[in-house]
């Protein structure tokens, strides 16, 4: 089954800026005993075998050991409540990694599925602010880290990441999550964002 997703993503982990998981391509230890991070996606264009996924949002919240590449991730999945049952099924299949493509890179690292919820997901993207909110569950907001002289956004290049090898650097202004018995606050910590294009 052919599929594709294009859009923008943002994340806000609990490491200091800059995250050693990114600079080591997940092979080095995080700043903390557990790595806790949401991967939030706004899908501008997407489809699976004719099922349109345009305009939908999704979030994966990861709680992993200190060295992410070792696996054993605990993952919660949040799907856009605006999606029809057919769209939810298509998104779930893609994000699980069972249909190949970049999500399959993560599938082998997951040790426990905490659960799947269909919820309102509000994703906002502006030049100096990226934000995702699921009311009552999570609120994350990041700001790009810029060169104070040129205004250019700092970026890390040539890393291994499912969204792409070049990642703009950001810092969070809000970073709250509480669900499935997992609660954390990543405010003031590391963030990234970029456009992505997946297919399988």
The largest β sheet comes out as: 13 strands, mixed
Mean pLDDT: 96
Distance between the termini: 8 Å
Number of strands: 13
Q: H/E series, N to C? A: EHEEEEHHEEEEEEEE
Describe the oligomeric state of these chains in a short phrase. Answer: single chain
How would you summarize what this structure contains?
With 200 residues, the chain is mainly β. It has 3 helices and 13 strands. It has one domain (3-199).
Could you characterize the architecture of this molecule?
With 200 residues, the chain is mostly beta strands. It has one domain (3-199). 10% of the residues lie in helices and 50% in strands. It is built from three helices and 13 strands, in the order βαββββααββββββββ. It has helices at residues 20-23, 85-96, 103-107, and strands at residues 3-12, 34-48, 51-52, 57-65, 73-80, 110-119, 122-126, 129-134, 138-144, 155-156, 167-179, 182-185, 190-199. A hairpin with a 2-residue loop joins strand 7 and strand 8 (129-134).
